[in-house]
């Protein structure tokens, strides 16, 4: 048999091999298109932060920890100069004692000596009133007979009336002392004591805060000031990263916003490893550009700030600042 007799059968085999070579990449592309990657959002790892502020504008005496150091709850971090705040606290305590003494005085009422003096003043006022009235009575007949000047009679009458008024004032003063302190005055004294005690408590709290301590266990993130600095009141003295496990702070694209809600399970990819997590917070307002400034296809540029809690125990101790990618389930995203 000649070689030419095999050629008709060789062409179909070559064609099949060429078809297989061409169709294999096409099938791979179609398969990849059918199994698209689930949607994802990008962000960074973060820890919850606690900021400790300066309770007063005082000089920093010592910084007891370093940035990055692990601290336990209640551990001192900084010491601040307490002299001025301690003096203010002592003055507030003195005000409390003074207010309490004034309240005790109000509750005791007038002293017996004060009442006795008021009685003596009343007796003197009555004697003066009798004398003035008697003198005026003696002048009246003489004034009618025009034996004395009318002005002298008028002065005698005024002196008698003035003496009677002083007598009545002395009587009222004595009654006021005998009846004692009014209930309203005692209530005012009690309120003054409470106000003084509140001011003293506030100063004591401020004094205690001058030794800055960690409210929770965590890691020191930053210490903005050095010994010798005098930061203003309210300035951050220390920032702590708290919690054993970080969370992912991500930006959810607008096409995914409708399907992402609190509690949505996700996969968090960090440095090539995947960890289980769930959405714990997502903002209702978009970040960066206001939604009303975007129309048409530009709406897809909106993003929403969200936080993802890492529920995988393997995430314990991961450092903050690492970039992350959060993947959502494809079927959930299409709902």
Strand order of the largest sheet: 1-7-10-9-8-11
- Total count of helical runs of at least 4 residues: 7
Low-confidence stretches: 1-11, 21-35, 331-335
> What is the tally of beta strands?
11
Shape: elongated
What's the domain count?
Answer: 3
| Helical residue percent band | 40-55%
Cα distance spanning the termini: 68 Å
The class by helix and strand makeup works out as alpha+beta
Largest sheet: 6 strands, antiparallel, barrel
Radius of gyration: 46 Å
Mean pLDDT: 83
Along the chain, the helix and strand elements come as: HEEEEHHHHEEEHEEEEH
Give the strand content.
15-25%
Write a concise keyword list for the protein shown above:
Membrane protein; three-stranded antiparallel β-sheet; Elongation Factor Tu (Ef-tu), domain 3; disordered C terminus; 11 strands; 46% helix; 335 residues; UPF0194_transport; 3 domains; coiled coil; OB fold (Dihydrolipoamide Acetyltransferase, E2P); disordered N terminus; alpha+beta; six-stranded antiparallel β-barrel
Could you walk me through the main structural features you see in this protein, from its secondary elements to its overall organization?
This is Membrane protein. Keywords: Coiled coil. InterPro entries: HH_YbhG-like, UPF0194_transport. Residues 92-200 form the YbhG-like alpha-helical hairpin domain. It is a single chain. This protein has 335 residues and is of the alpha+beta class. The chain folds into 3 domains: 40-47 and 243-334, Beta Barrel (Elongation Factor Tu (Ef-tu), domain 3); 48-82 and 205-238, OB fold (Dihydrolipoamide Acetyltransferase, E2P), CATH 2.40.50; 91-202. The protein has 7 helices and 11 strands. The chain has helices spanning 7-34, 83-108, 112-144, 150-179, 183-209, 254-257, 330-334, and strands spanning 40-53, 60-63, 70-71, 76-80, 211-213, 218-222, 236-253, 265-270, 273-282, 303-310, 323-328. The strands form 2 sheets. Strands 1-7-10-9-8-11 form a 6-stranded antiparallel beta barrel. A 3-stranded antiparallel sheet has the order 2-4-5. A hairpin with a 2-residue loop joins strand 8 (265-270) and strand 9 (273-282). The longest helix is centred in the middle third of the chain and has 33 residues, at 112-144. It is elongated. Mean pLDDT is 83; it is low at 1-11, 21-35 and 331-335.
